[in-house]
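Reviewer 2 asked us to include a model.

Predict the structure of this chain.
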Amino acid sequence: MRRIAILIATTGGPVLVDRITPEPAPQSMVCLRRQSDVLPISADYDDFVRPGSGVIMREFGPYEEGAFRLDVSDVIGTGLSWQLGVFAAHAIFESDEHVLSDLETADQIIWLTGTVDYDLNVGDVDHMAEKVESSALMLSEYITKGTPIIFAAGQENAKFLEDHQPPQGITVVSLENTNDLLKVLGLVKEVPAQAPSRNTSFWPMAVLALLAVGAVFAYSQQETVSEKTEEVALEIDVTSDRGENPIFFYGDYLNLWVEVTQEAWVSCFYKQVDGTIFQLYPNDKVVEVQSFSPKHKHVLSGGNNATFAIQFGPPAGKEEVRCYASPNQIDIDPENPPHDVAVDVLRFDLKP
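Predicted model (structure tokens):
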């Protein structure tokens, strides 16, 4: 049996599909680390599975149990870019020659991102650079070990990956539909030819990610936004790489996405469940504090060695990050903030 590890690419890092279990349950669900935590994407997964709305039962069923439990290694946030990886996992689950594998014992690793529509066409998705950067550290270990790795995505996403010249050991495959995916998995006779080996030692984006590990940093990714001539009020929006209502566990790191509607100076504060408040951004790892520009997504990230890196630990409970935006560079007292600044709050659950 050929062992294949399926990684769903997310901006928070690649998520391994651990196993699929048919269940006599009213709805299919996505669960975390074989525990009882049901992830928020479960409703979308159930729609993707069900006959009529989805494709899994239609393509691989019928199943007597009527539903599935899909176990994954980490939280998957909002959106539908997990569909391609989930389709691949179900195809392997149905195979007599392949099994889902962990990373350590895998014969091959397949990294996927994309949507799958009702006609089985593969759709392109956003945030490709962030997904590659967040995968770099993990995948570098398996490139070194010599485990074959395939990056599979929709046609435009695959072109983006090819344009950034992946290192030797990673093959990029462009997918028009799920039949192309089944070829990649070796579940139909025609298998795409391997792309020529490359001499680059590391993907440029991966290098940036590896250098960034261990430090609090901020970077901006250009967003495609239509030009507006009218003046807009100053607003700030704070989300995470795991969506707007994330769940974190001890040992996880917190990554924040911040957007503003006008040029603004931003300050962010972390409030623990015990009421303790400390400043998350700016911090002493930011050499030059600059204003945040509109039309960009500013990503504040934490790593192992940074003074203000947020690696979660006890006590468990409900915690929050509150960010303020001001047109002027001012000091913010989080317990008595000015009334004329924009504010947004990200609240989340922290579990053991």
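Residues 136 and 206 are 5 Å apart (CA to CA). The chain has seven helices and 19 strands. We have added this to the supplementary material.
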